[in-house]
Amino acid sequence: MKRAGSEDSNGVITSTRGRKATKTHDSHILNHINDYMPYYVSVRPLDIFCWGTGSMCELGLGPLAKNKEVKRPRLNPYLPVDKVKIVSIAVGGMHTLALDAESNVWSWGCNDVGALGRSTAGADEQLKDMDADNSSDDEDGNLNDLESTPMMIPKQNLPPLQEGHKIIQLAATDNLGCALFDNSEIYAWGTFRCNEGVLGFYQDKIKIQHEPWKVPPFSKYKIVQMAPGKDHILFLDEEGVVFAWGNGQQYQLGRKVMERFRLKTLDPRPFGLKHIRFIFSGENHSFALTKEGKLYSWGLNQYGQCGVSEEIEDGALVTVPQEVILPEDVNVKWVSAGEHHSLLLTQDGDIYSFGRLDMHEIGIPKSDLPEETYKDVHGNARAVPIPTKLKNMPKFKTVAAGSHHSLAVAQNGIAYSWGFGETYAIGLGPAGEDVEVPTRIKNTATQNHNIVEIGGGGQFSVSGGIKLSDEDAEKRAEEMGDE
């Protein structure tokens, strides 16, 4: 796929995910995005690595029961770099979407409510024989083969592909998939959930959408970016207006949703936020970066994950966007957030984190917690409500948050992780223990790769990397002190 931007020595560029600047209006959007696009997309296809717990087919490593727990990054054998040519990934709560060089969409994971955008009916699923003498908790039958194996969403279900348009971004929530095309058309599938169960997909007309469906236009300007949460998604148009769609019970939509109208208003709607340069989302809270560099947040804030106050209150909600408390010299490049924690990457490559620390999600050692740390009645440190810089760290180029774990890629292409370890989503081996501070993911499969994309789900992680030349691999090994 033709990419705009400057390619580095590893075949990586700052990109608009394949946007074609064929018209004056498109060129305006292209320049607008390139001003601040904070993550890398490969010109060359990526090796895809998956790890964590995949009892709901999240890992995409095939149906064998032995693939349900993968404790370190493993190369996905179904996405060979010489054939499939994946160039971008989007990681949801229990599923993953991947974009190839021809703008095809691949998916794997849980498809209970249509999140894969393709049919998995008629799958060969072998369940455990509970009466068998050799049955055990560790081997409880194979997985659904059509969910656990990466497969392409049929092209005919994405009409813009037939007209020569390209996908510029994929987005995945817990139960939804979304594709944004270069002509600003949006196709979505799946559903949104709420506290009571399935909320619905679009107004009161569609409950669950099993195949890609064209979202009716909701802005007179082109949509340039999406930011998925757990059960909501944000959209940004080229004029800097933010739209929100999905569940709003924690005010993650930036507006109050009346109970009696929550289905009729289940569509992308603006909520008064303008002049925005980029959007981000946690599971139940959201962020927006203004053109002047100010960061705003709203939504669930019971652990200070919105970063707007030193005060912690159980069940706290930020009902309208408020400015995040940041040092004056911090220039925000990227934000990624989980259920109760948030990560902020600066233009200088530093990470600031805030929110819950019960499972070490924020990566700050308890021996070096800031004064603002919230402690419970027993004196136990529970949360850091103000963005706090991680110390003694390398410079990073991207960050990603799973529900309760965190990931980051250093500028030299080496991945780090920290947080909740029981599900092995941090990829640091069989110990299964929580990890307090960012720790290098070092294993045979990825040690000679430049990791350029990474994402965290509920209990798993996915990364994409480009294999280094022997010379570059040897040079990096010397720099890192590897044997």
UniProtKB/TrEMBL annotation:
Gene3D superfamilies: Regulator of chromosome condensation 1/beta-lactamase-inhibitor protein II. Residues 48-462 form the RCC1-like domain. The keyword Repeat applies. Residues 7-16 have a biased composition (Polar residues). GO terms for cellular component: cytoplasm. One of its GO terms (molecular function) is guanyl-nucleotide exchange factor activity. RCC repeats lie at residues 46-102, 103-183, 184-239, 240-292, 293-348, 349-412, 413-467. Keywords: Guanine-nucleotide releasing factor, Repeat. Residues 468-483 have a biased composition (Basic and acidic residues). Residues 1-21, 463-483 are annotated as: Disordered. This is ZYBA0S03-04654g1_1. It comes from Zygosaccharomyces bailii (strain CLIB 213 / ATCC 58445 / CBS 680 / BCRC 21525 / NBRC 1098 / NCYC 1416 / NRRL Y-2227).
